[in-house]
Specification:
This protein has 325 residues and is α/β, with parallel strands linked by helices. The protein has 11 helices and 14 strands.
């Protein structure tokens, strides 16, 4: 459906997209996830033909976006981060205008526009001026123009930016409904948005593809492990001996605990093992008292923070980066 090969986009000395390669299959909802400044919007603008790449290739439905731009763009419905609306038009006037721009046969306008307004929940406001509508309704109108002509691919750049919680839920439901008939790609830097609606997630960091998998698999991507935190009251040598006995311990760290005569232990273990019961009995046999035992698995947020940290500073740009996407 979409093939991006070795894509590069440079602005002077700054590389916004750095040899990016991925493919998108038909019939799924893909999430394009990354911190602000990661290169998401730049990549989407190249995929839709709004920007030319410095190098590399994008194929939409088998058509090169530079060599066959008209055929490639007919496969795409695009909602940029700021919807391309005309505030002095009514909703119906705008959708008719968009249908004309997309060269949809005029005889199909009425039925198609009515169906799409019903799908996006804007039928009741079709005769209102766009300038008088809320941001949530404007996003719906932007989605409606993206769906006009029923393109097989819908690309949405930050579709929930600036919406209130109720509007976000409504747009999520709308995206899920679009995913039943279209391949949908949406970008965001907000984890909850992506994980709530997407079948597949691509994490972009510093213009590169850091990971690509299902939300569930990404949670196990980094080390295929989980962490067991313990506080054990015993001698250090005895505790170290206990930790060498069970299978599945990949690594561990010991540090003195605030509890008198105890040690804090962080055990990284293979996810196929659950060592809690084994360690309980091993400690009991050696009269080591377990004061705390807590199991934690890496969440999607943990994966995101790990993958998008700055390789030079070790800091996460999601917390500090300002500027474009």
């Amino acid at each position: 459906m979409i093939e991006v090969s070795n894509l590069v986009k440079c602005y002077g000395n700054h590389t916004a997209v750095d040899h990016l390669t991925f493919s998108v299959s038909e019939g799924q909802i893909y999430g394009f996830l990354g911190p602000n400044g990661a290169g998401k919007s730049t990549t989407m603008n190249i995929m839709t033909g709004y920007l030319a790449p410095t190098s590399g290739e994008v194929r939409i439905g088998g058509h090169n976006i530079l060599e066959e731009p008209e055929k490639a763009r007919k496969c795409i419905g695009y909602l940029p981060e700021v919807p391309p609306l005309y505030p002095d038009m009514t909703v119906l006037e705008y959708l008719r205008f968009a249908a004309g721009l997309k060269q949809i046969p005029k005889k199909e306008w009425t039925a198609m526009i009515c169906e799409i307004m019903e799908l996006t929940g804007i039928t009741d406001i079709q005769n209102r001026l766009i300038r008088n509508l809320s941001k949530g309704y404007r996003q719906r109108i932007g989605l409606a123009q993206a769906v006009l002509g029923y393109p097989p691919i819908i690309i949405l750049d930050e579709p929930m930016a600036g919406l209130d919680p109720r509007q976000i839920i409504e747009i999520r439901d709308l995206i899920r409904s679009l995913g039943k008939k279209h391949t949908v790609i949406l970008s965001s830097h907000i984890l909850s948005e992506i994980s709530a609606v997407c079948d597949h997630i691509m994490i972009i960091s510093h213009g590169k593809l850091a990971a690509s998998d299902t939300p569930e698999n990404l949670s196990r991507l980094m080390q295929g492990s989980c962490t067991l935190e313990l506080t054990v009251r015993t001698e250090k040598n005895s505790l170290e001996h206990i930790l060498t006995l069970p299978d599945g311990v990949l690594a561990y760290e010991l540090s003195p605990s605030p509890e008198a005569g105890a040690w804090d232990v962080s055990i990284r273990m293979d996810e196929v093992y659950d060592l809690r019961e084994t360690l309980f009995y091993l400690c009991a046999e050696r009269h080591a008292v377990i004061l705390k035992m807590q199991l934690s698995r890496m969440s999607l947020e943990d994966v995101f923070l790990e993958l998008t940290q700055d390789p030079d500073t070790g800091k996460n740009p999601a917390k500090s980066t300002k500027g474009g996407n």
